[in-house]
Design brief:
Keywords: Membrane, Transmembrane, Transmembrane helix. The chain is built from 2 helices and 13 strands, in the order H-E-E-E-E-E-E-E-E-H-E-E-E-E-E. The protein is of the alpha+beta class and 215 residues long.
């Protein structure tokens, strides 16, 4: 083999090494971009929720244990997307009211919506509970609350969200929101809450929010 042939093969090997180094560098850059994108998608800031007010159109109980609750309540809830580069799709959000972990209203479906960067959404759903029997283990506690003239309820929102970065949309995440609301009924009479036909409570209560990956 001539010296010229050896030099030719040496140059070819150098070109192949350079191409391999460039390919590896491009792959590393691509992987870094994918890792950053995945981080941006999987680690967004959770939306913030605020329970602005609760309007009680009806809140009645039976006169003595075992208690049965009937409620008609309108809620005003605001949500803010704190992210500057990530949008949020809200899908199948159900809102309902609980008393000491017992659900006392049916769930109301909030409208599907998209929340852009730093956008604020406001919902005002009505929730109903028609003749809901209170659990036996809560009878005494509810009796004490009614005699005291106040009770703590929680407004809960459960559903699914998706994150949007550019044209890319993530899989579904579970969303859980819990908003405590302290209701005062004034001076009770005979163990029952006393109120006018409509009671509106201004709260502006910040809610606890959890998001977890899931279907």
């Amino acid at each position: 083999m001539s010296v010229k042939d050896c030099g030719h093969h040496h140059d070819e090997r150098k070109k192949m090494v350079r191409r391999l180094i460039m390919a590896v560098a491009a792959l590393i850059i691509l992987l870094a971009m994918v890792v950053f994108l995945v981080w941006a998608i999987l680690q967004p800031h959770k939306p913030t929720f605020i329970l602005q007010d609760v309007t009680l159109y009806n809140f009645t109980t039976t006169t003595a244990p075992p208690y049965i609750l009937t409620t008609v309540t309108q809620l005003t809830i605001s949500s803010k997307n704190p992210n500057g580069r990530i949008g949020i799709y809200y899908q199948k959000l159900d809102v309902y009211v609980t008393y000491r972990e017992q659900q006392i209203t049916a769930a109301t479906l909030l409208p599907y919506s998209y929340q852009g960067h730093h956008d604020v959404a406001v919902w005002s759903p009505l929730v109903f509970g028609n003749a809901v029997p209170v659990s036996p283990y809560l009878q005494q506690v509810l009796s004490q609350d009614l005699n005291f003239g106040s009770m703590l309820i929680e407004v809960k929102i459960e559903g699914r969200v998706k994150w949007k970065v550019g044209t890319w949309v993530s899989g579904r995440y579970r969303l859980g929101v819990s908003c405590p609301a302290y209701l005062r009924f004034g001076n009770p009479t005979g163990g029952l809450p006393t109120m006018g036909p409509v009671v509106k409570l201004q709260l502006f209560q910040r809610c606890h929010v959890e998001t977890t990956l899931g279907s």
